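Q: Hi! New to this. If I give you a protein sequence and the SMILES for zinc ion, can you show me the bound structure?
A: Yes, paste them in.
Q: Okay, here:
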Amino acid sequence: MPLDHLKTLRDRLRKTRAGSAGTPVTFADSHPVFEIVALGVRSGVADGNLSSYLVRPLGTNEAVICDAGTLGHGLKRAEARGILDDIPIMPDSALGRAGHVLKQTVRAYLISHAHLDHVAGLVLSSPEDTPKPIHALPQTNAILAEHLFNGRVWGVMGDKGPEPRTGRYTYRDMKPGQSQTIGNSRLDVTAWPLTHASTTSTAFLIQHHGQAILYLGDTQADRPDGPQNLHELWKAVAPLVREKKLHAIIMGVTYPDGQPEEALCGQLRPKDLLASLRDLGHVCGGRHHIRGLRVLVSHVKETFHEGGHPVQHIYRELQDGNDIGIHFMMAEQSARYLV
Ligand SMILES: [Zn+2]
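A: Thanks. Here is the predicted structure of the protein with zinc ion bound:
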């Protein structure tokens, strides 16, 4: 074998084994069960950094991606920072690590709703993707099939819609509260509807051997005279919270507390999130159950306004009102959380 060939092979093997000690990590629990890689974390004009989270049980080569606002760019950026080095991949070609992770490790997409800041990356990476299911509520899958992968806005990448279609993505309609096993994996997922302006959004519970991560797409606060979707969600996950099996909640806070009620566009402010988490504590049977609960805060709006640091601003407002001992972390792009 020529020398440079050997060298390439050695480099590739070294790359595969890298990680463990060397892979950068932003937060690590002492006994982590899941890895969360933030591929994109903002909303608004941050078109290289929009909601997308890879969730993987540690020690496995099985992951799901929760929303895909920024997908290919998010994976490449994570690769460049060495964030993906821990994922056990099978090197088999000229693919970079980001490509291996997309094609081998990611087993499904969980799409909360079809707003562009949650699906743009899915659309753009789809020509290079391997076949996968898209788990979503039927309303969301119908919008993806009719209005996005419809042969006009983009090719027909799903298994519904006009010919010619690739059928690369299989739409898996979910029934609220009923868990599904993700094909070709040991991951279970359950969906619940959320209210988000004029559309239905979704919360996904991802479970592996009974341990869980909860991801919420965009949601508005419950109102006394309106839908109580967050309250219903909290009732469903309360047993996991009490048993310390819920390792993190990923949830959006889009605007600071100063945003007027009529300009929320179905989103949350820090005070809304805090009120809802107090409700979770109540549903669990006492605030002590949620002390130390980790909430990874996503979806802070980026605008063209000069000055101000909306992420720090929102973090400060969350901490100022945090009389319930929640462990808030502001999500950063290309960061890795072991929870
Ligand atoms: Zn939205």
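A: Residues 9-20 have pLDDT under 50 and may be disordered. Let me know if you'd like me to explain how to read the tokens.
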